[in-house]
TrEMBL record:
Residues 1-17 form the signal peptide. Belongs to the glycosyl hydrolase 43 family. This is Glycosyl hydrolase family 43. One of its GO terms (molecular function) is hydrolase activity, hydrolyzing O-glycosyl compounds. Keywords: Glycosidase, Hydrolase, Signal. GO terms for biological process: carbohydrate metabolic process. InterPro entries: Glyco_hydro_43, Glyco_hydro_beta-prop_sf. It comes from the Bacteria. Pfam families: Glyco_hydro_43.
Length: 378
């Protein structure tokens, strides 16, 4: 009997030790997973599946080499958004030097969506080729039958070769595409960029696709939104029904406004976007926009951050990466941003902040510590 009691106490103590650790968010602080290691999923994308949250992100290693893909895309799961279980590496880089996905390439901002018809999990990411800096500007595709992987790499490419955006006027199609004839930056260059200078330059070979997000609408249609035209203009591209390709239908949005790090969510039939400006790993003022359709037109709403001058200039020292709709709560959305630490990328941290609505605009305020009851009070 004593043995049984001792065993019960031991297993209860074990259970308590393993029990959920977090009951709230501590934005920007070290965030331990179930293995007591800081979560390693940067430029994250979130998928809700069977009432669980999944967090996919760039798995970084220590040191500057960690800015390149040495391991692949990591994945975590959670039931409550506070406590995350490390589910391992969803997409691994390859050892084969002939693979485009070879170790040392760049994989950024991976996003995963689920296709109801094919029952496949579809991952798209920003892909740069090994030893070629950021010049390839491709989008990559990998798929899996299991949400946590392993994902099989399918292809990478520059989208829309030989296809004009649906909102690009015929009158502009024959203008010059000679980027080098402009002084950069200059007002003339800026005007030409707005009117599609880089779009025309890349028309034959395919468009640039860097920072990206995916958005699946209520009707099951999926959109791939990415920084194109040398990061000057966003492209919103419709995916095919199986989500494994671009349908060819796409628009240019917020022309020449230099948006990166797009994240989209839908509320009351309207589409909202958070994004950043263009300063590499350094933070800059956040931006927001609204539209009646994912393909636009989008109307800029300005900086979504409310706070001190420094907070507003830096998006609370972060760059947007995703917006998570909270399961079971109406109109509850969480902004997710990265605090990049390029000298030692593995140290990068995350900020989760509740999205508030004021005068029909989404806004963010800093909170050192908060939990999901926030959405009940507001
Ligand atoms: C940022 C971008 C990141 C990464 C970085 C590289 O602007 O959002 O995803 O590409 O530049 O400098």
């Amino acid at each position: 009997m004593k043995k049984i009691i001792a065993l019960t106490i031991l297993s209860l103590t074990f259970l308590l030790a393993c029990q959920m650790k977090y009951q709230s968010f501590f934005p920007g602080q070290v965030w331990l997973d179930d293995q007591n290691t800081h979560i390693n999923a940067h430029g994250g994308g979130f998928l809700i599946h069977n009432d669980n949250y999944y967090w996919f992100g760039e798995h970084k290693i220590a040191g500057e080499e960690g800015n390149k893909a040495q391991v692949g895309v990591g994945v975590y799961s959670s039931k409550d958004l506070y406590n995350w279980k490390n589910e391992g590496i969803a997409l691994e880089v390859h050892d084969d030097p002939n693979s485009l996905l070879v170790k040392g390439c760049i994989i950024e901002r991976p996003k995963v969506i689920y296709n109801e018809k094919t029952k496949k999990f579809v991952m798209w990411f920003h892909h740069e080729l090994k030893d070629r800096g950021y010049e390839a500007a491709m989008t990559g595709l990998a798929i899996s039958d299991n949400i946590t992987g392993p994902y099989t790499y399918i292809k990478s490419f520059n989208p829309h070769a030989g296809i004009w955006p649906t909102n690009y006027p015929d009158s502009l199609k024959s203008l010059s595409a000679d980027v080098d004839s402009y002084v950069r930056p200059s007002p003339e260059w800026k005007d030409a960029v707005r009117l599609g200078l880089y779009l025309r330059r890349d028309f034959e070979k395919g468009q640039m696709a860097r920072d990206m997000t995916l958005f699946v609408d209520d009707d099951g249609k999926a959109y791939h939104v990415h920084s194109s035209e040398n990061n000057q203009t966003l492209h919103v591209a419709e995916l095919t029904d199986d989500y494994m390709d671009f349908s060819g239908n796409y628009t240019r949005v917020l022309h020449g406004e230099q948006n990166e790090a797009p994240a989209i969510f839908k509320k009351d039939g309207k589409y909202y976007m958070f994004s950043s400006g263009l300063t590499g790993w350094k933070p800059n003022p956040g931006k927001s926009a609204v539209a009646d359709h994912p393909m636009g037109p989008w109307t800029a709403l300005g900086n979504m951050c409310i706070g001190t001058e420094d907070e507003m200039k830096t998006t609370f020292w972060s760059q947007s990466t995703a917006v998570i709709p909270v399961i079971g709560k109406k109109d509850a959305f969480i902004f997710v941003g990265d605090r990049w630490t390029p000298d030692n990328p593995i140290d990068g941290s995350y900020i989760f902040l509740p999205v508030e609505f004021e005068e029909q605009k989404p806004v963010l305020r800093w909170r050192d510590n908060w939990d999901l009851t926030f959405f009940e009070k507001n």
